[in-house]
Amino acid sequence: MPDSERLIIHVDMDAFYASIEMRDNPQYRGLPVVVGASPGSRGVIAAASYEARRYGIRSAMPVSEALPSRGHGEISRRIEPTL
Question: Which of 20, 43, 73, 75 has the fewest CB atoms inside 10 Å of its own CB, making it the most exposed?
Fold first, then answer.
């Protein structure tokens, strides 16, 4: 393929699951949204919205490090996996 036809696309998948949650729950739009393991578990953050990133929360950050120390809001509900 010649360079003149080359197309490079960058997709920010770190915010994907948070974006889906905001799409399904419009009341979360504009709020920091974090998708990940249950608080108190040894899991990590799977996705963080851009609003959550302003508070320093990032994907792959341990939940124990991300949520309790931030103090910006509350956990609204627990989403159970559908397997």
Answer: 75
> Where does the chain have alpha helices with state H?
16-24, 50-53, 63-66
**Tokens standing for 13?**
């998948």
Calpha distance 14→7 (Å, rounded): 22
Dihedral sign for Cα atoms in the order 73, 30, 35, 22: positive
Task: Tell me how crowded residue 34 is: count the other CB atoms within 10 A of its CB.
Answer: 27
| Segment (H or E) for 35 | strand 34-36
Q: Judge if pTM exceeds 0.70.
A: no
In 3D space, the residue among 55, 57, 73 whose CA is nearest the CA of residue 65 turns out to be 57
Q: Residue 44 class from Cβ within 10 Å (0-12 exposed, 13-18 middle, 19+ buried)?
A: middle
